[in-house]
Every structure is written in structure tokens, then in C-alpha cells.
Specification:
Length: about 425
């Protein structure tokens, strides 16, 4: 027997019994972005490695440790995309979508990072994200936060998530803060762990995000980032906070909040939850006003967010949320060769006039008991039964599989309105 091939570690199959929950979430997302007037963009899974080195930053964990990078046959260095923002900017620059224009875009698809797989975090994972270009004021920052808050509302998890916000200020203000932070870290180097010592000079802001409780205790006395903001960024952040308060969005200012990617400036935010055990981030974003120019375009303000769908589906499952529509609503049983032509034509007629109906037709023959067993296993709530007698009389027998109701026989002419009523389809 040949050796069985298995999926690559950290790259998981989504099986039929799981896909319903994913489709439910994805449909909620599509309805959400449509309600805000955002347009979908689809970018390649493989990009030039330089795209991510120049955008994310060469001394970040993603670029140093996690990217799937390889040379193609031409000797070009290519990378499986680890995140979506850089690809959106590259596409916008390449196709002339950004300069002196306003764009509101969204994407959803697989990303890749070579990190240790754990529950809710995999080497192939899926992200949903939005990116808004060409808008400089805090009102667009407010909008993307409102959009994420509305998604939690539609998913029924608003009470399980908390919004944290901060401002990184301008590049100049952040540089001044970095100097002060490095000076503080150098004075306390003996109290830092090895990871923080390494980041102290290469990417000091990432030390603020350390998961080491001893380091976090030390950072309580570190310089406060908000005290180093330039006047314009201070005003921007003040207006953001004011608008969120006016709109009833609760938040917590976390001056230690930084993002792991180098391109962020001014507003940064995270939605966090402790419903999965240790507090974890399920959505994060902020401003990246310099990235378009950094990747070869004209200076363009930009803001967005991204969320991992695996983690979101896991959270919904833990909270018992989600209303995944059954894969099959009605199952058509066909009894006898003479009934088959009529039954198959009936099935196509129903699909013509009721395209929302999820109808599965039995194939492969078998007795009545076997077909009903298949109908039950499909998850359908109703079995449509057509035998030779029903075919001659153009009738269908209805057997309710999930309700204690008597079987009934109806004429084909009234079947369609009955199914509309039973399944609440228009």
C-alpha cells in the first residue's frame, strides 16, 4: 500500500462540517463592507520579497523568521504573502488607483507565516482586511473602527471584545520617543530578557509588546509615548477619542500599544478578548501614511485593519454563536426507474423558480429506507418523495425529518409556494 500523504503541518483542511460556520462569517463580512461602500480587491498570493522587506521592515519577526521565501527558476526572490496591506498598496500604485484619489478597499484570503502552529494560529491562515486611501482626517479612522464594531454587533460578540487605542505620532515624534526608550532600556538592560535585549536597538518599540511579565513590570516606568507626540498628531488623536465617545464606542487608551509592522504611524488600535483564555487580539489596525510613498507611489494617507478568520471562527464557536445555514434543506427521494425522469425535471424546475433552496437529489438507487437514511444524514429537514404513482399524478409526498408532523401528499402546482413558506425563501 502506498504511503498516505498528509497536509503540511500548520496548513489545515476546512471540512464540510466546518465550512458552514466559515460561510456564515464570510457572508456577514460581505454584507458589512457593502453597507459601507467598500470595494473588493484580490491580489496574488505570491509577491516579490522586496515588497515585504520594504514595507513590514527587515528587523521584524515576520521578515526575519516567518516568511515563506524562495527563488523561482529565474532566480527572483518570491514570498508567499504574510499580510494583505503591502499587496494592496503595491496593486494601487501599479494600477494608478491611489494618487490624488480616494479608495475604500477590502480583501479576504489566505496568508502564510512559518511560525509554531497552535490553536487559532496556523502557517496558512485567512485574513479579512479593509484599507482606505486618500483621507487624512480622524473621521476615516473613526469609520474603520465603527465598521469593526458593527461586525462584532452582527456576530453577536460585542460584549466579549474591548477596544484599545493609541497614537504613534509622526515619524519624527516616534524617532524622538525611540531615543528616550532606548536610553531607558539601556539603563535597565540587566533586567531585560534576551529577546528584549536583541530588539532594544533593532526595533525598540517591539519591546513594549513583550509578553514577558517581568519586562512588562519594568516598562511601567518607561517613557510614555503619548508625551512625545507632535502637536498635529495630538490633535488628531484627541479628535478621534472625542468622536468615539460621541458615537458611544467604549475604548481604553493603551500608551504601550504598538503594532508589529514598521509602517504604522499616528492611530493604532486593537480589539482584544479574553474569551479564548489568555487575552488575545482578534483585530488590529491603524494609520500608515508613509507606506504608499515608501513603495514608490506619491505620498498618500491611509488607514485600515485586518483580522484573522481562524481566530474569529474559534471565538464564535467558544461562545456558541453563529447561525450557519444547513448545506441541504430538502432531499429528493426517487422510488423506481419510471419516476426518475419526472423527479429530475421537478428538481430542476424547483431550482429555476426557487434558486435559494438547497435541494439535493438522491442518486444511485436503493430502497425507500436507504434513501430516507441518506436524507436524514444530509441534514435536510424535509424529504420530497416521488414514486411511480406520484410521477403519474404529478404529485410529491412530503416527509418532515425534524418535526413530529404527519407525511402529506401535495400537487406539484402547490409545492413551490409551500417550500417558500417552509424555508422562508422569497
Amino acid at each position: 500500500m502506498a504511503k498516505q500523504i498528509q497536509a503540511i503541518r500548520g496548513m489545515n483542511d476546512c471540512l464540510p462540517e466546518q465550512s458552514g460556520a466559515w460561510q456564515w462569517v464570510e457572508n456577514k463580512i460581505r454584507d458589512l463592507v457593502a453597507a459601507y461602500g467598500y470595494q473588493e480587491i484580490r491580489t496574488p498570493i505570491v509577491e516579490s520579497t522586496d515588497l515585504f522587506k520594504r514595507s513590514i521592515g527587515e528587523v521584524t519577526d515576520i521578515v526575519e523568521k516567518e516568511m515563506y521565501t524562495f527563488e523561482d527558476r529565474n532566480g527572483d526572490s518570491l514570498t508567499l504573502r504574510p499580510e494583505g496591506t503591502a499587496s494592496c498598496v503595491r496593486a494601487g500604485n501599479e494600477h494608478g488607483l491611489l494618487y490624488n484619489q480616494q479608495q475604500r478597499l477590502w480583501y479576504m484570503g489566505p496568508m502564510f507565516r512559518h511560525e509554531r502552529p497552535q490553536k487559532g494560529r496556523y502557517r496558512q491562515f485567512h485574513q479579512f482586511g479593509v484599507e482606505a486611501f486618500g483621507l487624512d482626517g480622524p473621521d476615516i479612522d473613526v469609520e474603520v473602527i465603527l465598521m469593526s464594531a458593527r461586525l462584532w454587533q452582527r456576530l453577536g460578540i460585542s460584549d466579549q471584545v474591548t477596544l484599545e487605542i493609541n497614537s504613534l505620532g509622526s515619524n519624527e515624534a516616534r524617532a524622538r520617543y525611540k531615543d528616550a526608550l532606548v536610553e531607558f532600556l539601556e539603563r535597565n538592560e540587566s533586567s531585560l530578557d534576551e529577546d528584549s535585549k536583541k530588539r532594544m536597538h533593532s526595533n525598540p518599540l517591539r519591546v513594549l509588546d513583550s509578553k514577558n511579565p517581568d519586562v512588562q513590570l519594568l516598562l511601567a516606568d518607561a517613557p510614555d509615548l503619548l508625551e512625545y507626540l507632535d502637536e498635529e498628531s495630538t490633535q488628531h488623536f484627541h479628535m478621534l477619542c472625542e468622536r468615539l465617545t460621541q458615537l458611544g464606542i467604549e475604548y481604553r487608551v493603551n500608551s504601550r500599544l504598538v503594532r508589529g509592522l514598521d509602517y504604522y504611524n499616528r492611530t493604532v488600535f486593537e480589539w482584544v478578548t479574553d474569551a479564548l483564555g489568555a487575552q488575545g487580539t482578534i483585530c488590529a489596525g491603524g494609520r500608515y501614511d508613509g507606506l504608499v510613498e515608501q513603495l514608490g507611489g506619491k505620498a498618500t494617507p491611509a488607514v485600515g485593519f485586518a483580522m484573522g478568520l481562524e481566530r474569529l471562527v474559534l471565538l464564535l464557536d467558544a461562545l456558541g454563536k453563529g447561525e450557519a445555514r444547513p448545506a441541504v434543506e430538502a432531499y429528493l427521494c426517487i422510488m423506481g426507474e419510471q419516476a426518475q425522469p419526472y423527479a429530475m425535471k421537478l428538481a430542476e424546475t424547483l431550482r429555476d423558480h426557487l434558486p435559494q433552496l438547497r435541494l439535493q437529489t438522491h442518486c444511485g438507487g436503493g430502497n425507500f429506507k436507504k434513501q430516507l437514511k441518506r436524507a436524514d444524514k444530509s441534514g435536510a429537514s424535509l424529504a420530497l418523495i416521488v414514486g411511480e404513482e406520484e410521477a403519474q399524478q404529478q404529485q410529491v409526498s412530503l416527509k418532515y425529518l425534524r418535526e413530529d408532523r404527519p407525511q402529506e401528499q401535495v400537487a406539484e402546482a402547490v409545492l413551490l409556494p409551500m417550500l417558500k413558506q417552509i424555508f422562508n425563501h422569497k
